Amino acid sequence: MTETEGRSIFEHEYVQVYANGYGHIVLLFEDEKEKPLAVGQKMYELNEEAYMNGYNWDAFLNYYLAQHAPDILESLDSDPEAGTYAAYFEESEENEEKARRFADIIISLIENEEETYAILRESGDEIEWD
User: Fold this and answer.
1) What pairs with residue 29 in β-bridges?
2) Looking at residues 104-126, what average pLDDT do you find?
3) pLDDT (tens digit, 9 = 90+) per residue, 8-28?
């Protein structure tokens, strides 16, 4: 496959979706930005296993997607790090739409944090934390 120029698909304060020019759609969630960091700190206060680095966001998001959007989970490969979470999809129109939906889900979970805390309270012991 020949390298092509990457392109931005979606940009938000802490979530970006872009085509990387190598045949993949990338979703990047920067969990150390102000709002996600504050939500992550509260999650840790509610559940000591929920130390919300990229690895535990991976665990939480995998749990959430399995419950609410399993079609997205089927198409992605994740690559968490200490301060970021990245998901990769093979480049296609269908996967671009899935990446956009996933970005909307992450933003909703951060901006409507009470929903996130409720999930954690009700199902935190079902999540496979790092």
Assistant:
1) 15, 85
2) 97
3) 999 999 999 999 999 999 999
85, burial (CB in 10 Å: exposed 0-12, middle 13-18, buried 19+): buried
Contacts of residue 108, defined as CB under 8 A and 6 or more positions apart, other chains included, come to 115
Is the CB of residue 33 less than 8 Å from the CB of residue 14?
yes
Indicate the DSSP class of residue 17.
Answer: E
Q: Which helix (H) or strand (E) holds 102?
A: helix 93-111
Q: Give the position of tokens 């970021």.
A: 84
Reference 128, options 55, 70, 39; nearest CA is: 55
Q: Is residue 27 within 8 Å of residue 84, measured between CB atoms?
A: no
